[in-house]
């Protein structure tokens, strides 16, 4: 999803519509994640909207709550990302049972993945230096595992 230049990680709150002209085809990724063929085709026809609410709780921990909806009548999904590196679990009808961890990252080059490996360069190179996290971090790292379907996803 593309965002206007004035939007930063300091406040992602808002409604975001997927621009398929600027996005890669998600079908190969959805197939690798075990999403059934018919459901993938319906998703590919849909206009996808992401409603984001970013806030800091009383303990000074950043939360990014995501509600994804579509125009095709397929049920949306909700993700509650807590940027404290604690493991959370949830289940949804598209991706199955997931475990995830999320955190602010100050130095992508020094960041380790959820399983302790260095991050691949396609995750670490070419990002803007925003430095808007609570301690001057410039990135948010998301690690998701679906043990049942055998996949792991990493996002910056």
- C-alpha geometry: globular
- Total discrete domains: 1
Overall mean confidence score, pLDDT: 92
- Beta-strand content bin: 35-45%
Query: Number of DSSP helices?
Result: 3
Flag low-confidence runs.
none
Query: Helix/strand/pairing class, anyone?
Result: mainly beta
* Helical content class: 10-25%
Structure overview:
InterPro entries: Pericyclase_pydY-like (IPR053037). With 156 residues, the protein is mainly beta. The chain has a single domain, classed as Lipocalin, CATH 2.40.128. The chain has helices spanning 27-32, 37-45, 121-124; strands at residues 14-17, 48-56, 62-70, 77-82, 88-92, 96-105, 139-146, 151-155. The strands form two sheets. It has a four-stranded antiparallel beta sheet, with no helix packed on it. A four-stranded antiparallel beta sheet has the order 5-6-7-8, with no helix packed on it. The chain starts with 13 loop residues before the first strand and ends with a strand.
